[in-house]
Design goal:
Length: about 250
């Protein structure tokens, strides 16, 4: 069949490799040309087989996933690489982004999201509309995970502010002067109401939300007297999303 893309899997777990192979080949649009549990073997086979796409776990023997990514990027016409990891932290995500990973995804993977990113990686023509919709879905998923109630106004204001922050970069010094007024203008309200509604939404999450998810994103268990400021909340989520944004070769 034409237009079937080739994929190399690198994961130290045999069961994980089997599950990934089954998922990758389920659409009929990808074929797995190799599935290995060793980073050096993955590098050797990448050079030999020249796959279109590599899915690699970070934790690999002999050469970890980031080392594999680094070695591949030193060669001409490297494959796109999606990095998977059961142990996500900002440093690892930032390093993967710096080395040119197309995407970084936490394990266990969300199957539909992984297939979506695989298609984007090999298509090379993702539209701005698709990017925007995917980003909104990720923000919504994080809010659901943390426990921000969707019915409160602060939910919409925080989501809009985070999407703006992903585009604009560091906004921690401009929240009061720029971000609140911009969000208020989009929703036909006032900056002070935006600020109060955001504060309420964050407070509700810390009081009633998922403590493990809050720890995952903010390093703070609940209940606790500590709460992130509005700007810290927005910047933390925006930074994580920015690190996960797809990279182009």
């Amino acid at each position: 069949m034409e237009n079937i893309r080739t994929v190399l899997l690198a994961d130290s777990g045999e069961e994980s490799r089997l599950l990934l192979r089954e998922l990758v080949e389920s659409t009929g649009e990808f074929t797995v040309v190799a599935a290995v549990g060793d980073g050096m073997e993955a590098l050797r086979l990448c050079r030999e087989l020249r796959p279109d796409l590599v899915l690699t776990e970070v934790a690999l023997p002999h050469l970890d996933g980031l080392g594999l990514l680094r070695a591949l990027r030193e060669r001409p016409q490297p494959p796109q690489v999606i990095v998977l990891s059961a142990f996500c932290n900002e440093r690892t995500m930032a390093e993967a982004a710096r080395l040119g990973a197309f995407y970084f995804m936490a394990k266990p993977v969300h199957q539909a999201s992984l297939l979506e990113q695989m298609h984007m990686a090999v298509s090379g023509n993702e539209t701005a509309e698709v990017q925007s919709a995917a980003l909104e879905r990720r923000v919504t998923a994080i809010f659901r995970e943390i426990g921000i109630p969707a019915h409160v106004k602060g939910y919409r204001y925080l989501r809009e502010a985070i999407l703006m922050a992903v585009d604009y970069g560091d906004i921690t010094g401009t929240v009061t002067k720029a971000l609140y007024p911009d969000v208020a203008k989009r929703f036909g309200t006032t900056a002070s109401r935006v600020e109060r509604s955001m504060r309420t939404a964050i407070e509700m999450a810390w009081l009633r939300g998922d403590g493990e998810a809050i720890w995952k994103y903010f390093g703070s268990p609940t209940p606790t007297s500590w709460r992130p400021s509005n700007s810290a909340f927005i910047a933390t989520i925006a930074d994580r999303l920015r690190l996960q944004e797809p990279r182009r070769a």
